[in-house]
Write a structure and sequence with these properties.
- There is one protein chain.
- By secondary structure, this protein is of the alpha/beta class.
- It has one domain: 3-Layer(aba) Sandwich (Rossmann fold).
- It is 44% helix and 16% strand.
- The chain is globular and about 55 Å long.
- The termini are far apart.
- The structure holds NADP nicotinamide-adenine-dinucleotide phosphate.
- The site of NADP nicotinamide-adenine-dinucleotide phosphate (NAP) has 27 residues, from helix 1.
Length: 267
């Protein structure tokens, strides 16, 4: 990616994983567009933390399930930044807006999943590309376990939407390869300081203990900083030959065999 002053837009960077990505790029002096939906105070807090790292940024607001609002957000970005080096599609609606099993999910919930993931990525990338010079970086934040499996039944809408987005990653990667722009999906495992912390305490404890006891070979959940660091790594020119991939960023959790209890696997 071209060096000099770099600019990034991270959707859903008011909190959670998006914030971790914003702070990791800020530590590399990237100017950040911090996107939020309803939580302006959280976005302001991210901006304060970006500034503490010696970078700067602006706030942008949009409902990513509405393509017109995505287009308006990029219009603002063009006026503020004039260019873009990194685009991260990370935002995801609140869980009740899509979380329902296949026999019950409403079409509204199905649309919330697809509009916020596959369609928002389609629209966002097409808006980002005219602002991007050769060597730009595009990321989709996915949850590949949800797009590959069927066990967590109420995830059907989001899992299907993430699968469609992962497919788009491959098509876009080919479409922009000649410009040296890379397009990759990053798949975090369960991550602290994110949607996890909105679950009931008992569910949080079950998930944490399961991972600490071996399901994640590294013995802990991920952090927004872990995910942000990988985005920063991929923004290096040294990552220019990796494109169109789904990269697991999960401390090894995806290596475990779901048919065998972890105690036996790790020995
Ligand atoms: N957390 C995990 O363990 C985990 C694991 C794998 C993958 N992921 C993926 O990582 C991404 C971030 O997850 P997270 O847990 O960090 O999220 P989170 O903490 O729940 O934050 C969600 C973010 O999305 C924004 N948002 C919500 N609804 C929106 C809408 N309609 N339009 C635009 N923005 C909207 C929120 O903005 P406001 O603050 O303004 O509401 C917030 O910035 C998601 O794509 C998720 O699927 C997460």
């Amino acid at each position: 990616m071209a060096q000099g002053k770099r600019h990034a837009l991270i959707t859903g960077s008011s909190r959670g994983i998006g914030r971790g990505i914003a702070l990791a790029l800020a530590a590399d002096s990237v100017k950040i567009a911090i996107h939020y939906y309803r939580n302006e105070s959280a976005a302001r807090d991210t901006l304060a933390q970006v500034r503490k790292r010696g970078a700067d940024g602006v706030l942008v607001q949009a409902d990513v399930t509405d393509p017109a609002q995505i287009t308006a957000m990029f219009g603002k970005l063009k006026a503020e930044f004039g260019k873009l080096d990194v685009f991260v599609s990370n935002a995801r609606p609140e869980v009740p807006e899509f979380f329902r099993p296949p026999l019950e999910i409403t079409l509204k919930q199905w649309d919330a999943a697809f509009d916020s993931q596959a369609k928002a990525f389609l629209v966002g990338v097409r808006e980002a590309l005219p602002l991007m010079g050769d060597g730009g970086r595009i990321f989709a934040i996915t949850y590949a376990e949800g797009s590959r499996t069927g066990g967590l039944q109420p995830w059907v809408g989001m899992g299907s939407a993430k699968a469609a987005m992962e497919s788009l990653v491959r098509y876009f990667a080919v479409a922009v390869a000649k410009r040296g722009i890379t397009v990759n999906a990053l798949s975090p495992g369960w991550t602290e300081d994110s949607v996890l912390n909105t679950l009931p305490e008992q569910a949080q404890d079950l998930i944490r203990n399961w991972h600490a006891s071996g399901w994640t070979p590294m013995g802990r959940l991920g952090t927004p900083e872990d995910i942000g660091n990988v985005v920063a790594l991929f923004c290096s020119d040294k990552a220019r030959w990796i494109t169109g991939q789904v990269i697991y960023v999960d401390g090894g959790a995806s290596l475990m065999n779901p048919e065998v209890p972890p105690e036996i696997q790790i020995g």
